[in-house]
Amino acid sequence: MNLKIPFLSLLFLLAVEAGAQSYDNNFTFEAGLSLGPMNSLTDIGGTPGFGQRGPKDLNIKSTTLFGSIYAMAIYKQFLAFRAEGTIGSVKSNDSLLAGIATTNKAIGRYNRNLSFRSPIYELSLTAELHPIELLGVFNPESSAPRLSPYLIGGIGVFHFNPQANLNGQWIDLQPLHTEGEGFSEYPDRKVYKLTQINIPLGIGVLYELSSKFNLRLEYINRKLFTDYLDDVHSTYIDPSLFSKYLSGNQLTDALILNNRRKPGVPDLLTTARPGGRRGNPANNDSYFTINVKVGFVFGNENGESGGNGSGQSSRRLLRLQKRQLSCPSVF
Known about the structure:
The chain is of the alpha+beta class. The protein contains 6 helices and 10 strands. The chain has one domain (4-330): Porin, CATH 2.40.160. An 8-stranded antiparallel barrel has the order 1-2-3-4-5-8-9-10. A two-stranded antiparallel sheet has the order 6-7. The longest helix is centred in the N-terminal third of the chain and has 17 residues, at 4-20. The termini are far apart.
């Protein structure tokens, strides 16, 4: 958590630098802040019933809050490139399924009794494509619409660190090798890296508040290349193997946190035993955000005009420029 201040300070300086550059009529720049909910889809928690992919397995109770700072360059209002830094967290636990019947297909997850939390630090480079502006649907002589939907895609790098609570203390799970990652007995289970690449994909809508301020609403899902966001992936291992690779507190913590099945649960109502299913290796984890962005626009100063001294919208100015190019004899 000590990384938050320098991380956000760096992004703020980048945003200011972007706004301080020279401009031409084709480019504007924007810098701003985001805030909204963050959630994840992992092997832990979920909704009652058989585990499913996508929103059907989303448990709203696992929602957390995140924030970000961004800077972007906008070309002719239809294409934008954005650098963004995000700080948030994800979490979930099997106890969210409390109260389900023993005949429910999720009873095995509830009795498994796993839980996790993980901070998320992310840097991303994404592009915005505004189809309406690109296709030129609206008349160049008319005012540009204040509302513009867009598509989002790009690449990011993120850092995570799954943890579990043990007697009031949060324990890092990756060093415990809870599923035998890196053990010679499981050559197919490699030690996962805590810093990895992701692919942000999403949709958004922009509303032009004024020539200086934009408001955005976005949904962005991150495609991950790991199933260990929650430190759960495959099957339970023989707990006797931990003493071969770990010692001291790490050995004690691994023996406890590897298998946390509820006491007294019949074997028929859980797979929490050596060789039993611990997670679903068929699907990688993911996390997503819904956010509201407020951005300050730079670079349309050269276009400020009007009898009352007020600045015109850069979107409006670009449409006037198109009109000039198509009808030069009129001007």
